[in-house]
Amino acid sequence: MTAIYIILGLVALVLIYSIAIYNKLVGLRVRKNEAWSDITVQMKRRYDLVPNLVETVKGYAAHEKETLTGVINARNAAVASNGSPDEQAANENIFSQALGKLIALSEAYPDLKANTNFNNLSAELAALEDHIQKARRFYNGNVRELNTAVQEFPSNIIAGMFGFTLSEFFELEENEHIAVQQAPKVEF
């Protein structure tokens, strides 16, 4: 009779431990999704800012149509991207390069460079880039924790049983055209 209680006790302990691991994995996945949501909010703020920036530049450099069109097309592609972090990063990198070209126009147009509206929008863009970097680091930290839990023993057993998989990191190329603290200075 005592052996049955010991076995039942061990089964109960294993069950409780499995539930704790499952709940930990669920919590990590929720935190990762929340962090991704923060990235999308910051990127949306940047997407919303860009048309104002393009309109300001258009007033001073209307004949730079190729650059302006490139920025809008890259923005629209980034906005439409709903894929994995890798796919989103690829679109974001193209968008950041196009933004860098747009900001670089200020060097060629002193009146644009002196425009208060352009300077305010550039400063807001730089601040948004900083927020995106912070959100990206937070997201990648949560992905690291989730991926570690999915791969460690014994949580990998529970993860496998309930379909928890490794998540992708969100890696962006460093863009020297968009500085974090100030409007960038680009020389050709």
Overview of this structure, please?
This protein has helices at residues 2-60, 65-80, 85-108, 110-114, 116-151, 155-161. It is mostly helical and 188 residues long. 78% of the residues lie in helices and 0% in strands.
Highlighted features:
188 residues, mainly alpha, 6 helices, 78% helix, rod-shaped, disordered C terminus
Offer a quick outline of the entry.
It is built from six helices and no strands. With 188 residues, the chain is mainly α.
Radius of gyration, rounded? Answer: 24 Å
* Structural class based on helices, strands and sheet pairing: mainly alpha
Low-pLDDT parts are 176-188
Order of helical and strand elements: HHHHHH
Name the average pLDDT.
Answer: 89
User: Biggest β-sheet: count, sense, barrel?
Assistant: none
What's the helix count? 6
SSE layout:
Elements: H1 2-60, H2 65-80, H3 85-108, H4 110-114, H5 116-151, H6 155-161
Helix pairs in contact: 1-2, 1-5, 2-3
